Amino acid sequence: MKPSYHNFSFTNHGLDRRKFLKGVGATGVLLLTANWNWAQEAEEKKYGGDGMSGGTKENPKVFIKIHPDGTVDITCTRSEMGQGIRTSLSLVVADELEADWDKCNVVQTVGEEATYGNQNTDGSRSMRHWFMPMRRCGATARAMLEQAAADQWNVSVKEVSASMHEVVHKKSKRKLGYGKLAGIIADGDLPAASTITLKSEKEFRYIGKNQTLNIDGMDIVSGKAGYGADVKLDNLLYTVIAHPPVYESKVESYDDSKALKVPGVVKVVSIEGTMAPSEFNPLGGIAVVAENTWAAIKGREALDIKWSSSPNDSYDSNTYRDTMTTASKEAGKLIRKVGDLDQAF
Questions:
Q1: How many other CB atoms sit within 10 Å of the CB of residue 335?
Q2: Distance (Å, rounded) from C-alpha 104 to C-alpha 146?
Q3: Which of 127, 150, 155, 228 lies most in the core, judged by the most C-beta atoms within 10 Å?
C-alpha cells in the first residue's frame, strides 16, 4: 500500500497531541517542511561563484587539453598571488581526472570572463567558488576517457575505470593511456551533467594531501617568477599619480606647466574621482605619464595642485582607533545569519 504524505503547519489552535500522533500513525508518514533550502540556495546564489560577474564554468574542453604523448594541460582561471591557487585548483582537476600529476602542466588563462568565468582573484574565494566546478570538469573528462576506451574495446563502460593516467579493463587487463584516447574525445560531445559521478573522499589522490609542492614555489623564492611589474613592452610608458592627500578631497585646479618641462614626461592626465564610498574605484588625482619611472616621479613633484576641503580633514588615527575599540564592545548589527552555531555543535 502506497503511503500518503501530509504537510503539517503548526499554529496555536490548541492541537491535541494524542490526536496529532494518532493521525500520523494512520498515515505511517510524517513530513515536516521548512523553507531553509530555499534560503540556502539564495545564499549560494548571492555569495557563490555564480553570483559574480562571469559566473563559473566547468567545460573540460575549456580547462583541459590532453596531448598525444599523454601530457595534460590544465588551465587555471585565477591569478597566482603567492596563495598557491594555480597549484591547488589544478590539483583538484587532476584528482578527478585520475591524472598523473607529474604529467600535468598548468596553463594561465588570459583575461576573458566570457570563456573562463569570473577571474576576480581576491577575498579568498578562488577555492570556495571553483572547487566543485573544477571537480566536475575533471570528472567529466574522466567519464569521456572511460567511454572512449569502452567503445574501443566494445565493452560496457561499467567494466572500465580510469586510474593514474590510463583506462583499465579489469576483466581482460587491457589498458589505454590518456594520450591514445585524446584524439577520440577531442571532438566528442560532453556527457549530461546528471551522469557524472564525483569521487568519494576516500578516493582522493591529491585533494587534502600534503605531498605536492607549490608548482611556482621554487621560482618565487629564487627570483625567477614573473610579476606584473616585470612586464616589458615596446614603447612602454610609466605613470605616477598624485592622489588626494585626504579621502574625498578633489582636484579644484592644477598647473602642469613645470611637470611637462621635466625631461621624459610625455603628458599629464586628470583622473576623475569616485564619490564615497569609492570601494575599488579610483580616488582621482593627476597622473604624470613618462618614458621612465624617475621622470614620472619628478614630474609629479613639479605639479601645482589645489585640493578641495574634505569631511576627513580632521581625521586622526588615534581617535579613530578609540572609536573602533568602543564600538567593538557594543552589540553588533546582524547583517547575515545562516544556520545555528550552538545547535551545530
A1: 5
A2: 19
A3: 150
Residue 18 binned pLDDT confidence (cut-offs 50, 70, 90) = low
* Tens digits of residue pLDDT in 237-249: 999 999 999 999 9
Query: What is the distance between the alpha carbons of residues 229 and 48, in angstroms, rounded to a whole number?
Result: 31
Q: What is the pLDDT of residues 23-78, one digit of tens each?
A: 444 444 444 444 446 566 666 677 789 889 999 999 999 999 999 999 999 999 99
Alpha-helical (H) ranges within 48-190 are 60-63, 85-97, 113-116, 126-153, 178-186
Helix axes 85-97, 126-153, angle to 10 degrees: 30
Q: And the C-alpha cell for 168?
A: 583499465
The CA distance from 22 to 161, in Å, is 52
> Are the beta carbons of 238 and 296 closer than 8 angstroms?
yes
How many angstroms separate the CA atoms of 48 and 123, rounded? Answer: 12
Q: How far apart are CA 36 and CA 41, in angstroms?
A: 9
Beta bridge mates, 251: 307
